[in-house]
Amino acid sequence: MPTVEESSQQHIGRRVRWLLSPSTNLFQSKPGQPTLDSFFQWLLGLATIASIFNAIKQLIFFFIFDPWDTSIGFYMGYLAVPLVGAVFNIGCWRYFRGRGYRQNWGTLLLIGNSAVLTGMVLAIFPAYMSVFLPLLIPCFFFLATFTGILLNFTRSMLVVTLLACEYVGILLLAQSQGVAVEMDGFSFMPATTIVLYLIAVLVGLISQQMQLTEAALKTANEQLEDAQATLSRYVAPQLAQKIREGAVNEVWNHHRRKLTLFFSDIRDFSATTDLMEPEDLARLLNEYIDEMVRIAARHSGTVAQISGDGLLIFFGAPEFTDDREHALRAVRMAVEMQRRMEELQRRWYKSGIEHPFQIRCGINTGMATVGGFGSAGRREYTAIGMQTNLAARLEAACAPGQILLGHTTWALVKEEFPCKEMEPLEVKGFQQPVQTWQVDLDLIPITKRES
Predict the structure, then answer these.
(1) Are residues 210 and 289 in the same domain?
(2) 59 and 49 in contact (C-beta within 8 Å)?
(3) Which of 33, 34, 79, 281 has the most CB within a 10 Å radius?
(4) 3-state secondary structure (DSSP) of residue 121
(5) How many domains are contained in the chain?
């Protein structure tokens, strides 16, 4: 009687469940509703159990009725490695010949959206052919299995559809079995092929639908990326990120926050630009705003308002870190803006604009109300309150090309930035004159001015 060793059938159920575990949410449905994935797993599990019982039946038949010392065998292949890369040689089948035992190696090949896992007889089935598998597979499998037996090759195949290089489901599960025959001293098994037609058709249709779904998802993702890019051009990056995360209420709700607020404008901009051609004015203003907003983004400032040449930028919302860090970032940003404005002025002068443009910067730290303000159809994310008004007054009182700080901001940054005390400022709404400090740009090293 032939010797039959234990095969890997005890792992089949676990491997099948693993293979069919959806890595995307394409098969998910509402709670309490049956899913296509669960039906598919049930169907394939039933077919797997049936094939195992069939193999056991064949073994019993051979043990009882086979009077000759001929070769018998059964096998079941399963995936043992991730589908990553191009071509792998893996050992995942066992089969038996005569009284001996032999381990064979299979081949894994990835082509486009499909993968083929087979023995030495390699076959390739593109994903789009899955619907036609019931018509094509029987003849091919008989030849492949018959040839494999004659050449002592492995005789099983799994074809797996890929979506984004992850498992989706089995396209085909085929089992070959046969009666051992001895002819002219050479033992071989002319096999019959059992193809699970229903699974092939079902998964083929699923594969086609998933390819259509993948194309639709790709188009939707491209449209979403375009919308996100457009959104980032009209709102601050921090706000765009919050909106993408679904935290819209967090953005528009009103909060009391301690902010560092920055105001700036170009001195005598309107009087000078009234004499310019509209095209030149638009080019100059857009270049200036683009450079200033880019600097603000580098320092994680929230650009709340752009009004002509005027800017309102604050630190501390929507993301809060530390009061001192907010003040330091605001002053660093202002220093870099002044430095960049000098470069722009030289460029504009060479292009024929003789009037020297200089910006004034006012920075103040204090409590403000931040959130969405406006009508139901149009809102702005901004900050209001007395401390915001004070920052605007500091900017208006600032000398051209300078940075003027409120007392609280100065106290937070004085260890890093040299400042000189200026005349107290009378501000409406404040009972006492407000102390002001001017950043001494001449004492700031070049490396720090460009930080």
Answers:
(1) no
(2) no
(3) 79
(4) coil
(5) 2
Of the three residues 216, 243, 268, the one that is the final residue of a domain is 216
Q: Which two tokens stand for residue 38?
A: 């669960």
Give the integer Cα–Cα distance in Å for 199 and 48: 11
Residues 186 and 329 reside in one and the same domain: no
Q: By C-alpha distance, which of 73, 115, 131, 113 is closest to 211?
A: 113
pLDDT by position in tens, the chain (length 451): 333 343 434 343 444 344 344 443 333 334 444 444 455 445 545 544 554 555 455 445 545 544 443 333 333 332 222 222 233 333 322 333 333 333 333 334 433 344 444 333 333 333 333 333 333 433 333 333 333 333 333 333 343 333 333 333 333 333 333 333 333 343 333 333 333 333 444 444 555 566 667 777 788 788 877 777 776 666 777 777 777 776 767 777 888 999 999 999 998 887 777 778 888 888 889 999 999 999 999 999 999 999 989 999 999 988 888 999 999 999 999 999 999 999 998 988 888 887 778 999 999 999 999 998 888 777 888 999 999 999 999 999 999 999 999 999 999 999 999 999 999 999 888 889 999 999 999 888 865 445 4
Residue that is written with structure tokens 């029987």 in the block: 138
273 & 209 share domain: no
Expressed in angstroms, the distance from the first to the final Cα of the chain is 85
Looking at the structure, tell me whether residues 159 and 33 fall in a common domain. Answer: yes
135-144 in b/e form (b: 16+ CB < 10 A) is eebbebbeeb
Range of the domain at 392: 254-449
Exposed, middle or buried by CB within 10 Å (0-12, 13-18, 19+), for 232? middle
82 in a structural domain: yes
Work out whether strand 255-266 and strand 302-307 pair parallel, antiparallel, or are unpaired. Answer: unpaired
Among 59, 175, 159, residue whose Cα is nearest residue 107 = 159
- Please give the structure tokens belonging to residue 121: 């007889």
